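Handout for the seminar on molecular recognition.
Each group receives one record of this type.
Step one: identify the two inputs.
Step two: read the structure output and locate the region that could contact zinc ion.
Step three: write two sentences on what you found, then compare them with the reference statements printed after the record.
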Amino acid sequence: MPPLTEFQVLNAPVGTHLGENHIEFLQKLGKPTWINVTGKDQSRSRAIITLLHGNEPSGLKAVHRILKEAILPATNLVVVVASVSAALHPPILSHRYLPGEQDFNRCFKLPFDTNQRKLANDLLERLAVLSPEAIVDTHNTSAHSEAFAVAVDTHIPTQLLAQMFTKKLVVIDQKLGTLIENTNGVSPLVTVEFGGFMDPRADVLAYESLHRFATVTHLFNTEPVDGQLLEHPLRLEIEPSHNIHYSSSVQDDADLTVINTIDQLNFQEVAVNTNIGWLGRKKLAPLSAVNARGEDLIHEYFHDVSGFLTTKAAMTMFMATTDPFVARNDCLLYFKPHAS
Ligand SMILES: [Zn+2]
């Protein structure tokens, strides 16, 4: 197979590529794909990006259903199915990215020197040429969570776009190499985390809201409503070489045991002196709490209380995972300290 550095382009109806269900669809696509759907108003376009992560299927299921219904979108619509190879790697839809490769949603940055980064650059260039009036990038969380949107600014169009999907908006300013950081403001753009990857409500929300996104005539002729806005969060990270367990009791060999129901704290207000896990021999040393400037504020927000990892300030947590792989390779959780 040639190196996958460009998207294959299909025009809807995608005919034999569609398949009976989202699995067949994925198998028939076989590679990263950009699908053009002609809409009512052909002077405008919108884009839906799915499967930047191969194990997050709600967006894929939704676009498969929308393409199968052969809807007439309000504007031209582009549907992108990205990490097809990772998603097809057996067992199907179980790999965030291929073993030995990088997280594709960390590849949207220079240098574009690997196949994955060239593919990321191809997507950025295509989106720049298309210049859609809005882009939505669909994800699922690795643990239980309510749906939320992630953006890199709080401009009114960004807020309006986010509110088509959820009233929770997280604004990140860490530079991670994600798609949303690197489209150079070509279009209002949000990532939507529809909920846990096996939560049926996430699939329902993805289908209903993406259908509306594709068919509503105007996205921006209203005012944002009040919602939960979380700006400038920090990331709680552990050095990837350390071992982390999720359990309801301490694991003696672990560098960190996180309480395995931590995802119940997602979007909850967490009080000062809440225990979220047990520290290992190295105590807080493998942990960091990084802000947008790359400063480590671990000792400002967490402390060791009799061997527990304990909050040192009131905060709202979100994106707390219960997956040790995600915790080590991305982060344990994001948190926004409350103003004191
Ligand atoms: Zn994701």
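Reference statements: The two ends are 57 Å apart (CA to CA). Residues 233-337 form one domain.
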